Amino acid sequence: MIAETVCSAVSAAGLGIAAITAYRRRFLAAARIAAYSLVPVGLVMTGIVDWLADTAFSPMAWAGFGVLGAAWLLFAVTRTVERRRGGTRKERKEARAAARREAAAPTASAPSLGAGARPAAGRGSASRPEDDFSDIEAILKKHGI
């Protein structure tokens, strides 16, 4: 009962503002304001306001919202776990890099480097610039370039 009264008052105020706007010869804006102000009355007349009021005060409806929230949470968690199945991002990146290194022949870049250009096995880290260029050279040699 109170919701219908409030919606009617809002619509009446909106129609009043639309009338003032039309008086100022801004007819397009007045028509738009009138359209917006008729929405609350239309919602009351269709029964949506009663349905919303019944839903807002219904424990069963709130339980349903809780179930929907739990379903959404489960969906989000399963997607996250599925993405994380390969480990951390760093581990996945290292695995992809290792797969790329294994795809190229390990001795394909040896002739292009020469005997003196090969670095010692014990010094240096895994992310040397020479390693990056050797991968590129192996790819180019594989394609005959």
In brief:
The protein is an all-alpha fold and 145 residues long. 76% of the residues lie in helices and 0% in strands. The chain has helices spanning 2-23, 27-46, 48-56, 59-84, 89-103, 110-113, 129-142.
Observed structural traits:
7 helices; single chain; 145 residues; 0% strand; mainly alpha
Topology:
Elements (H helix, E strand, L loop, with lengths): L1 H22 L3 H20 L1 H9 L2 H26 L4 H15 L6 H4 L15 H14 L3
Helix pairs in contact: 1-2
Count of β-strands? 0
Question: Which blocks of ≥5 consecutive residues have pLDDT under 50?
Answer: none
Strand content: under 5%
Work out the helicity level: over 70%
Shape: elongated
Protein structure class = mainly alpha
**Helix-strand pattern, N to C?**
HHHHHHH
How many helical elements? 7
Mean pLDDT over all positions: 81
- Please report the distance between the alpha carbons of the first and last residues: 83 Å
Radius of gyration (CA) equals 35 Å
Q: Please give the largest β-sheet.
A: none
Note down, in words, how this protein is organized.
Helix content is 76%, strand content 0%. It is mainly α and 145 residues long. It starts with a helix and ends with a helix. The model has no long low-confidence stretch (mean pLDDT 81).
